[in-house]
């Protein structure tokens, strides 16, 4: 697989699990994204040069379409070199209506720069242990987005 095939590959994994993006539970979505990172390398993105990493992020955002609490797992690809125009991201974002509980969680992020199984296991433990993940996992998202875009 190369970076530009990642969205199609993840959609296939979701469908093979008998799920659809619009009804994807947080726990299963994160499991699929983490397994995708563990098992499928992007041949055009050298992992030794931070070319294939995961980013977990959460917080209240308004990108012009309304204010939502977002829980996001993003796979970042740097294709061949570190030029900004070669930075691409595959983001799985769960959006929730803001609430006092979600507002209190603030915002944050954590990177997993290494596809080594132990590093990914530690990263997964961190993600699942956060108050943001635990709170959002118990809620039904308003919308779920799977986007692939140039982040450079």
Textual characterization of the structure:
The chain contains five helices and five strands; from the N terminus they run H-H-E-E-E-H-E-H-H-E. By secondary structure, it is of the alpha+beta class. It has one domain. The chain has a five-stranded antiparallel β-sheet, with helices on one face. It is globular and about 45 Å long.
In short:
The chain is of the alpha+beta class and 152 residues long. The protein has five helices and five strands. The model has no long low-confidence stretch (mean pLDDT 93).
The helix tally amounts to 5
Give the overall form.
globular
* Rg, nearest Å: 15 Å
Mean pLDDT metric = 93
Could you list the spans in which at least 5 consecutive residues all have pLDDT below 50?
A: none
Structural class: alpha+beta
Question: How many strands, what sense, and barrel or not for the largest sheet?
Answer: 5 strands, antiparallel
**What portion of the residues fall into strands of 2 or more residues?**
25-35%
How many domains, in number, for the residues?
Answer: 1
End-to-end Cα distance, whole Å, is 21 Å
Q: Into which percent range does the helicity of residues fall?
A: 25-40%
* Beta strands, count: 5
Following the backbone from N to C, one meets helices and strands in this order, namely HHEEEHEHHE
